[in-house]
């Protein structure tokens, strides 16, 4: 166990965290990033080709984009540790962060950029067959279901992107959505509907995932309009129904909305406590895009820099 003190600490990685790190390190503050031990790099690590991030006309793979951001942050002087913050005390001028390893870091300013985690269906069989048919990452597991029936649950961009990717592997891909219209952007809807390997089951929900010793084998469905039930073969069940902000570790230290997202002051990244700033999907429940997270990470860095100067900490 060690204890150290820094001018500024960034909790979490991903586009928001790395952008904040790049700006703060270039400003000379030599930030420490506590990037996470289990899933560093944010949601883009589990994303296939990113086509809408500026500067990449031919697209870029999500993990490659995160690797590049990490190298850029380190190039300018960011220190990165692969650990998780499990307890915080933001009540004093010097903020205290306790890591899962037992190490303690004190900081004058903190940027929270912990992002969000996948949301679970919460139906029987989901937990039992997790890793044995149930997955939350098409790029991680799609290959294992080559020539097998696959279902994707969800109706947003992520669900349609996963369905499109999985159509390269599965014998069939069925997208299940609880409403009669999709929430995804028009370009993603057009792409999915034009894909002959994707079919749609609208106004339907998964009520149970069934299987055997070999793994998942089918899902039980219920029609949300008629109440009719049925089943669908599914060796792969990919769940893409949204995210939950990663704020549980704060244990109420910062003000959050009813859904757990950290609230900030207007267009700034200032949280309910001075010296603590938040950026990315841990704040944003609407846009949830890599480019908007990166932009917010920039704002958090500038807000943190202004605060550090006000506290007499010049680079």
Automatic annotation (TrEMBL):
Pfam families per the UniProt record, alphabetical: Pyr_redox_2
Reaction equations catalysed: [thioredoxin]-dithiol + NADP(+) = [thioredoxin]-disulfide + NADPH + H(+)
Bound cofactor: record note: Binds 1 FAD per subunit.
EC number: 1.8.1.9
Entry keyword set: Disulfide bond, FAD, Flavoprotein, NADP, Oxidoreductase, Redox-active center
InterPro entries assigned: FAD/NAD-bd_sf, FAD/NAD-binding_dom, Ferredoxin-NADP_redctase_2, Pyr_nucl-diS_OxRdtase_2_AS, Thioredox_Rdtase
Keyword Oxidoreductase found: yes
SUPFAM superfamilies with a match to the protein in the record: FAD/NAD(P)-binding domain
GO annotation terms (biological process): removal of superoxide radicals
Cofactor: FAD
Gene3D superfamilies in UniProt: FAD/NAD(P)-binding domain (3.50.50.60)
Domain FAD/NAD(P)-binding: 7-297
GO molecular function, one term: thioredoxin-disulfide reductase (NADPH) activity
GO cellular component, one term: cytoplasm
Alphabetized PANTHER family for the sequence: THIOREDOXIN REDUCTASE 1-RELATED-RELATED (PTHR48105)
Family (UniProt): Belongs to the class-II pyridine nucleotide-disulfide oxidoreductase family.
Assembly: Homodimer.
Protein name: Thioredoxin reductase
Lineage: Bacteria, Bacillati, Actinomycetota, Actinomycetes, Bifidobacteriales
């Amino acid at each position: 166990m060690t204890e150290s003190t820094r001018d500024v600490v960034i909790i979490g990685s991903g586009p928001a965290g790395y952008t904040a790190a790049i700006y703060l390190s270039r400003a000379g503050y030599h930030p420490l990033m506590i990037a996470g031990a289990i899933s560093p790099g944010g949601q883009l690590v589990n994303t296939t080709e990113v086509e809408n991030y500026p500067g990449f006309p031919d697209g870029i793979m999500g993990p490659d984009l995160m690797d590049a951001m990490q190298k850029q942050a380190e190039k300018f002087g960011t220190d990165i540790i692969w650990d998780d913050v499990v307890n915080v005390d933001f009540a004093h001028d010097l903020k205290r962060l306790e890591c899962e390893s037992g190490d303690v870091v004190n900081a004058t300013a903190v940027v929270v950029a912990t992002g969000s985690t996948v949301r679970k269906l919460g139906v029987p069989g989901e937990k039992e067959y997790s890793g044995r048919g149930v997955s939350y990452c098409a790029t991680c597991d799609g290959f294992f279901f080559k020539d097998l029936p696959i279902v994707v649950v969800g109706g947003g961009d992520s669900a349609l992107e996963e369905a499109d990717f999985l159509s390269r592997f599965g014998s069939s891909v069925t997208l299940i959505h609880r409403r009669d219209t999709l929430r995804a952007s028009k370009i993603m809807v057009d792409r999915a509907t034009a894909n002959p390997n994707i079919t749609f089951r609208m106004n339907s929900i998964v009520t149970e995932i069934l299987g055997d010793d070999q793994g998942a084998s089918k899902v039980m469905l219920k029609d949300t309009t008629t109440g009719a039930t049925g089943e669908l073969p599914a060796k792969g069940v990919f769940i893409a129904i949204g995210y939950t902000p990663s704020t549980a570790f704060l244990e109420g230290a910062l003000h959050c909305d009813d859904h757990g997202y950290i609230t900030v002051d207007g267009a700034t990244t200032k949280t309910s406590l001075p010296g603590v700033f938040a950026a990315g999907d841990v704040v944003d429940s609407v846009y949830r895009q890599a480019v908007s997270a990166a932009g917010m990470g920039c704002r958090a860095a500038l807000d943190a820099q202004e605060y550090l100067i006000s506290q007499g900490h010049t680079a």
